[in-house]
Task: inverse folding
């Protein structure tokens, strides 16, 4: 389901936990589009929070989370995948009024299962995953149009209400995203194929690169391996949380790689050509 | 060996066979840098040749190759890898005076072996491989700084003279390239690892992509698969000519991919982390 009509009512107060590339870009976009009167940056590290405030990504910051979320109608959790559950459970304790929480993590099923039945009734959670980002990290790379025209996945589950799903969809639409909804499990399978597998391939290519040939690397090598510059700890968490789907995607990739290899070895030109043409067709379909 | 001092004496006449992205960019660069009085575009297709002339990539064109190479001091063969040998042998027949021929093909060993002992003594051949290009093809994408700051590999062999190798090195340096020399076989091994393997990985990723998830493809997928949009016929020839080295590179890649897969499956966090970190280290070393 693709929605296109942004219709979010401006909010009084939004709290963002973790003001790095994604959290910072959300803050910048909210402020630029005048979608929130107050954007409160939460974190543990005052220096980083100060950097985010100076960049204009948030209007105020605090390391005292209870205070930060006190008046927030919406909390966006932008911390690494492996910490999101603990962070949401902690923040939920501090919410005294009806509050909507979403996140931006790259996996969803483990998150939804871990939170199941553990949130107070006035706190609603709907998972999100904006398909935007970069191998770069940190608020200094954030920008207010990071989500413009990009897909944001919102993941309704048996525990989400229609109203809260709608609010989260409108939030991403208001930041310029095209919203697609899918269940947490379908999400994890999809991103396993379209995001986590390319990361594995890029990482293995880069990790296996011989230093003696690196002076020859041209744009092809640079493009194909670009995402391997991403944060290893973050990606380790993503792979662990989405292990089953990532393994399935790797196995399918290895199977087709083996077919290509054997076809080349046996001078089976038809198969080599078929795979090359299928790759070009699929790649051309997506543009540059 | 890296050379940095361009010192090519301007030539009177250079012939370029095949005026597409690479051939066209050579012509544009020669003209912009005033390195040749005449740049003659050779080909079979008058319409394409006309396009190249209109773009300013060449000063004149002809489909009559004998006439085109009559006065040329240097011929650059920019046709697809599988045709280079035949084209060089044909052109060599038409050379009545001392002529230097080079090419821009992505593989070298088969080429050098196939030409061995077959050229008249006044025609000297030295293979080249500029590590520049794009998944785009055609003279309309050519530009005069395509080689600026990029590596060009020149491949001396037992049949090349020092003087002709030096001339070809100076030619690429004059176009702005950093020249590296290596034997044809070492070249093929190196590009098998640094160029052909990434193309295989990108192709297999793109070919295996499920259409149902394609709307989710973000910059990671787009970067990792970009080169898969390259010309399938051209790449088929490259893979066939460099089969042994490509197979070795695929096998090394598949081995490391298998290690990563098994480590993830067994929750061997150390190995997963080691490979992720090695990938990041190697990728970071090359810049963006």
Result:
């Amino acid at each position: 389901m693709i929605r296109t009509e942004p219709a979010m009512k401006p909010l009084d107060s939004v709290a963002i936990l973790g003001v790095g590339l994604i959290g910072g870009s959300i803050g910048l976009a909210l402020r630029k589009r005048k979608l929130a009167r107050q954007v409160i940056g939460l974190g543990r590290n005052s220096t980083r929070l100060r950097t985010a405030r100076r960049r204009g990504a948030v209007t105020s910051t605090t390391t005292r989370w209870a205070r930060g979320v006190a008046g927030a109608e919406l909390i966006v959790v932008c911390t690494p995948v492996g910490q999101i559950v603990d962070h949401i459970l902690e923040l939920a304790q501090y919410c005294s009024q009806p509050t909507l929480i979403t996140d931006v993590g790259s996996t969803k099923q483990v998150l939804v299962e871990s939170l199941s039945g553990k949130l107070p009734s006035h706190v609603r959670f709907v998972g999100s995953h904006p398909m935007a980002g970069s191998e770069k990290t940190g608020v200094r790379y954030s920008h207010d149009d990071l989500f413009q025209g990009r897909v944001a996945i919102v993941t309704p589950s048996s525990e989400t209400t229609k109203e809260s799903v709608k609010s989260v969809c409108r939030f991403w639409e208001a930041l310029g995203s095209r919203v697609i909804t899918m269940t947490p499990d379908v999400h994890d399978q999809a991103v396993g194929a379209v995001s986590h597998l390319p990361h594995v391939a890029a990482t293995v290519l880069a990790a296996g690169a011989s230093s003696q040939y690196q002076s020859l690397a041209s744009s092809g090598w640079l493009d194909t391996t670009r995402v391997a510059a991403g944060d290893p700890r973050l990606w380790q968490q993503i792979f662990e949380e989405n292990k089953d789907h990532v393994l399935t995607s790797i196995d399918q990739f290895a199977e087709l790689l083996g077919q290509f290899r054997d076809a080349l070895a046996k001078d089976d030109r038809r198969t080599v050509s078929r795979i090359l043409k299928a790759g070009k067709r699929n790649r051309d379909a997506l543009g540059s």
Strands of chain B lie at 2-3, 11-17, 36-42, 60-62, 74-77, 99-103, 123-125, 127-130, 151-155, 178-181.
